[in-house]
Specification:
alpha/beta, Pyruvate-ferredoxin Oxidoreductase, domain 3, Alpha-Beta Plaits, 8 helices, 11 strands, globular
Length: about 325
């Protein structure tokens, strides 16, 4: 697609990343709440989800999108936001995903639901190209995630918009971007008190210098075709299959106490992703494929495996 196919200088794009099943609803509510508020200001709007992201899988990274403009949206049939102005993370460990800031416009905004400071979050970013502002908001202390299939895939939404953590997150987005009027957002969300807290209590850090984004080589259809398994067969992750990397699903990672481990291989037997191997140094994890399901911890007879927060580790 030509970069100049749609020249829409007034268009604002918002991309929300979340964890499948547990946060689909709140991710969707962020984009719907912001677009509903913008519609009250007579703006043209769109809000939708990316169904390619397998939203029915627990912890898988999923996306929801919004477009807001004072002008008719020419790119209304473009399925993804190619150049977001605002990127939102509904869960903090998504900050390690190297795709979250893809296409971010120069001076773009990153909003993260976390108890950590903007400085801490900045340290975890794989790249901060074009990033101008980092915002953190502890939405989990202000409301509770709404885990439901209401509103999914065209179903009726009986829970309302903005009852959970989406409310304070949307408030933080407005504080950082001014993309809609706060009073209009307040009319839309079901939990306006939490939204106000998100607006008032979020931490906003503007970067002193905006680093230019590095060019990214786009995968062609042929590149994707070459990665597809032949005749339905899938190589074991032990042999390194780049088409099966799922480590970015993980919110907690397993750590082995080598002194306590008896090398009984029970964890190897139960691991659904074959990401545990026996080496000369004992049992080892290939974290590129570990989803953090914790089956290894649950089945280890010696209690040698402990699940720890993913952001305890920089890499």
């Amino acid at each position: 697609m030509s970069e100049n196919l749609f020249a829409e200088p007034n268009l604002k794009q918002i991309t929300v990343w979340a964890r499948g099943v547990l946060q689909n609803k709140d991710a969707r509510d962020v984009v719907v709440a912001l677009t509903e508020a913008a519609a009250q200001e007579d703006k043209y709007v769109q809000a939708w989800e990316n169904y390619v992201d397998l939203p029915d899988r627990v912890y898988v990274p999923v996306r929801a999108y919004a477009k807001i403009s004072p002008d008719p949206i020419d790119s209304r049939y473009v399925y993804e936001n190619d150049a977001p102005d605002v990127v939102v993370l509904m869960e903090e460990t998504l900050v390690k995903n190297d795709k979250i800031l893809k296409g971010l416009k120069e001076g773009g905004i990153l909003v993260v639901n976390t108890r950590r400071s903007p400085e801490e979050i900045l340290n975890f970013l794989v790249t901060n190209g074009n990033l101008g502002t980092v915002v953190t908001v502890d939405a989990n202390s202000m409301s509770t995630a709404v885990v439901t299939l209401d509103g999914a895939e065209g179903a009726t939404d009986a829970t309302g918009i903005g009852a959970g953590i989406s409310a304070p997150v949307a408030g933080a987005v407005v504080k950082a971007s001014g993309i809609v009027k706060l009073e209009n957002l307040e009319k839309v969300v079901k939990n306006p008190a939490a939204m106000r807290r998100g607006y008032n209590e979020c931490q906003v850090m503007k970067l002193d210098k905006i680093e230019p984004a590095e060019p990214v080589k786009e995968e062609t259809a042929w590149d994707l075709l070459k990665r597809m398994p032949f005749a339905g067969t899938v190589d074991s992750p032990v042999s390194e299959n780049p088409g099966m990397v799922t480590g970015n699903w993980r919110t907690r990672r397993p750590v082995i106490d080598k002194e306590q481990c008896t090398e009984c291989s029970t964890c190897w037997i139960f691991c659904p992703d074959a990401c545990i191997t026996r080496t000369d140094n004992g049992m080892e994890f290939n974290l590129k494929y570990c989803k953090g399901c914790a089956l290894c911890e649950a089945t280890c007879p010696s209690g040698a495996i402990t699940m720890v927060p993913e952001l305890d580790f920089k890499e």
